[in-house]
């Protein structure tokens, strides 16, 4: 038997126990040391306000359609919560050759004491890449896609809305891209402080200041060249439209919740002829640069950036709580994220990433 963090209905999370299935020939069983939660998507689905509550996504027609009477939600109900896992291989199937017993690996997976994956889905954790780096590969992937979709390059002025894990990696990547000015926008002070440390030239609390006016003051009466909206908040999207100059690009990657109507599309959107791009490298959407950039190449590139310390996860996995406190922490952050960036869960007694045995390069 093993336990995991489990959603049984909207806005209800608990520790749930299940029996592990027999291991198949190409499968690997991992004892989890650390796990992380995906705040945007998992909190959105947890809220009960996602489009999946009353509709289903027709994958053939790429269209949300109304559910038939009595049809239950087809996904995201009664499921284990979690995004990335780091742990130790404790059992391997007879046909597994990629990893050995005792190896430290990382993979996508739920926040459970035991995780079972096919061998192609796991990767060895190699120094100097840390457990925290591995748990940040998913937000780094979304950040990478958004920055490339934005077309940000040397000399651009860019505004980033939402400084969760994804937004903080966007700031790092924009700084690496040689952008002249990076304005980081978030109401949470600790996130703004991290963004400044990662290369933001200006930080803004949108609850206290008008970002549209600020960008005009910063950029010679014009707005920014690009805005990247990573919060999934309609008010932030409206702010992004106000923050850029005419004919500028606004890139979104947040999972917008509900059916809000705060967007004034007759204002800056219409009069400044803005370009709006959804940057979403999942749901079977290929990169806009496919086939030159596929998922495998992007992942390899990000791993290499972590290994060469061109990206850092320092400060992003926060807070880190024992597994016993995970359900309480999940609910606390859902209702009040002011003290959190990306929730980490420790399944080890020490809770120290340095205790892991990580192979050298």
Automatic annotation (TrEMBL):
Gene3D superfamilies: Medium-chain alcohol dehydrogenases, catalytic domain (3.90.180.10), NAD(P)-binding Rossmann-like Domain (3.40.50.720)
Record keywords, A-Z: Metal-binding, Oxidoreductase, Zinc
Signal peptide range: none
Cofactor(s) named in the record: Zn(2+)
Metal-binding in keyword set: yes
Alcohol dehydrogenase-like C-terminal domain mapped to chain residues: 165-266
Assigned protein family: Belongs to the zinc-containing alcohol dehydrogenase family.
Protein name, entry field: Alcohol dehydrogenase
Organism of origin: Ktedonobacter robiniae
Lineage: Bacteria, Bacillati, Chloroflexota, Ktedonobacteria, Ktedonobacterales
């Amino acid at each position: 038997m093993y336990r995991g963090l489990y959603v049984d209905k909207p806005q209800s999370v608990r520790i749930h126990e299940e029996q592990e299935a027999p291991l198949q020939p190409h499968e690997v069983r991992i004892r989890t040391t650390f796990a992380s939660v995906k705040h945007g998507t998992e909190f959105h689905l947890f809220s009960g306000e996602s489009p999946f509550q009353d509709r289903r996504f027709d994958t053939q027609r790429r269209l949300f359609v109304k559910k038939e009477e009595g049809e239950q939600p087809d996904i995201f109900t009664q499921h284990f919560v979690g995004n990335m896992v780091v742990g130790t291989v404790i059992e391997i199937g007879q046909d597994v050759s990629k990893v050995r017993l005792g190896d430290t690996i990382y993979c996508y997976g739920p926040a459970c004491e035991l995780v079972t994956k096919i061998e192609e889905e796991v990767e060895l954790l190699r120094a100097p890449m840390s457990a925290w780096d591995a748990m940040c590969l998913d937000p780094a992937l979304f950040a990478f896609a958004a920055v490339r979709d934005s077309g940000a390059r040397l000399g651009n002025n860019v505004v980033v809305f939402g400084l969760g894990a994804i937004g903080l990696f966007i700031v790092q990547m924009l700084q690496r891209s040689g952008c002249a000015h990076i304005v980081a926008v978030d109401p949470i002070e600790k996130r703004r402080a991290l963004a400044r440390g990662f290369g933001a030239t200006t930080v803004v609390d949108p609850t206290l200041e008008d970002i549209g006016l600020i960008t005009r003051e910063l950029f010679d009466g014009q707005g920014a060249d690009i805005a990247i909206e990573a919060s999934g908040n309609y008010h932030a999207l409206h702010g992004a439209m106000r923050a850029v100059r005419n004919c500028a690009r606004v890139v979104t990657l947040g999972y917008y919740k509900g059916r809000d109507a705060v967007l004034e599309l007759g204002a800056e959107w219409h009069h400044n002829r803005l370009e709006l791009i959804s940057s979403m490298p999942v749901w079977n959407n290929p990169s806009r640069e496919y086939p030159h950039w596929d998922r495998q190449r992007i992942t390899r590139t990000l791993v290499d950036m972590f290994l060469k310390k061109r990206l850092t996860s320092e400060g992003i996995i926060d807070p880190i709580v024992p597994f016993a406190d995970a359900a309480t922490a999940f609910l606390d952050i859902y209702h009040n994220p002011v003290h959190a960036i990306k929730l980490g869960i420790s399944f080890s007694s020490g809770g120290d990433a340095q205790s892991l045995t990580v192979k050298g390069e």
